Amino acid sequence: MKELEERIRKEGTVKEGNVLKVDAFLNHQCDVALYDAMGKAWAEHFAGKPITKILTIEASGIGMACVAARHFGNVPVVFAKKAQSINLDGDQYVTTVYSFTKQREFPVIVSRKYLGPEDHVLLIDDFLANGKALHGLIDICKHAGATVEGIGIAVEKGFQGGGDQLREEGYDVDSLAIVESMDPKTGEIEFRH
Length: 193
Ligand SMILES: O=P(O)(O)OC[C@H]1O[C@H](OP(=O)(O)OP(=O)(O)O)[C@H](O)[C@@H]1O
Ligand SMILES: O=c1[nH]c(=O)c2nc[nH]c2[nH]1
Known about the structure:
Blueprint: H1 2-11, E1 13-15, E2 19-21, H2 32-45, E3 53-57, H3 61-69, E4 77-82, E5 92-99, E6 104-111, E7 120-128, H4 132-144, E8 147-157, H5 162-168, E9 173-182, E10 189-191
The structure holds 1-O-pyrophosphono-5-O-phosphono-alpha-D-ribofuranose and xanthine (XAN).
């Protein structure tokens, strides 16, 4: 998506440790018009899929998932919560996800009330790096017996391999910008096309 690539070039900064900072418009301050264009692009890509629910993971996926839902007939958005283990009980699907930015594992939960075998799910997230968050969401869908219809990602860091692995596993991954390489010293960013 040209608009997203341009914003990344203009306002993104490349940090050490494979971190791309885009918090001016994507995951701290939120550009809602951009979110809307992203939702439209995912709706075009996944047109015809019988999506009943959007599933994302807190925190950064929530805003864009909610705006995207407007383009999918206002389906409900469920976000997986990074829980304290003290909160866990049998009414939840539980998995574990290693958080890229917090550098630790979290138990991640979704209530059984909000996901089940009747659901056809679109997974949405702001970043796809090593694929830990997405594999956690897929795991939760498997527990629920729900069908994963596709994966919509704002920014995939292609060089970290998570997206290619998911495609090899057969998932339809629509990343609106795929960073092929980025250099913290020069700030240069190359996109995959
Ligand atoms: O493909 P991965 O290696 O899993 O990386 C992608 C995940 O990393 C970030 O979550 P994180 O927990 O770091 O931060 P957040 O709470 O801001 O969403 C991002 O929002 C994705 O969910
Ligand atoms: O703001 C972010 N920048 C990143 O490079 C990244 N990778 C995973 N999650 C991320 N969030």
